[in-house]
Amino acid sequence: MISVAIDGPAGAGKSTLARRLAANLGYIYVDTGAMYRSIGLYALRAGKDPRDNEAVNALLPEIELRLDSIEGEQHIYLKDEDVSTAIRTEEAGMAASAVGANPAVRAFLLDLQRNMAKTQNVLMDGRDIGTVVLPHATVKIFLTATPEARATRRWKEYQAKGINTPYEEVLADVKQRDYQDTHRAAAPLRQAEDAVLLDTSELNFEQSLDAMKEIIAQKVAG
Fold first, then answer.
1. pTM for this one?
2. Is residue 66 very low, low, confident or very high in pLDDT (cuts 50, 70, 90)?
3. Which helix (H) or strand (E) element contains residue 106?
């Protein structure tokens, strides 16, 4: 089985690029960030602070998480509810970063993620795929861009959706996520030693996609 691990900070375009790559390559796309967002959302809905590990851990036995592919698009379910849209808020993103620092949550999701890679060709993105989840991945890419470039992309996405969040607020959120993700005790965000670094600050979507295809082709061939 071929596994592609894509890591990088929030807003680097991992999910969007990974979805298109997986569709082009015929691999299964696994959005690990959506899993953490779902657990963060579950905690918020339960009235718990996502940073309170004990409170979140008490919820884990009742969380039923399921991934499904509908017309090539990944959907994520909490029990029978499709939460694919509900998890895409800024609040759910911050909650995901908080629960992502919780060792019990990481252990809860680790087996699920690894089992997916055992039975099919997968393309998985997140914060610690190449370092922790799939340390023996066929291909590892560390996708990054400057905080300003990432904030601009996210701000434009919000504008397109009619969400009028000030750019300064989006940039502050990006920097806050970076700090949380790189300073957490459990599996902090870092580039795996054998990962290929790809900075997309000056690249558009198609250029970024082509660069990733080239990296994968070289690694799989080699």
1. 0.79
2. confident
3. helix 103-119
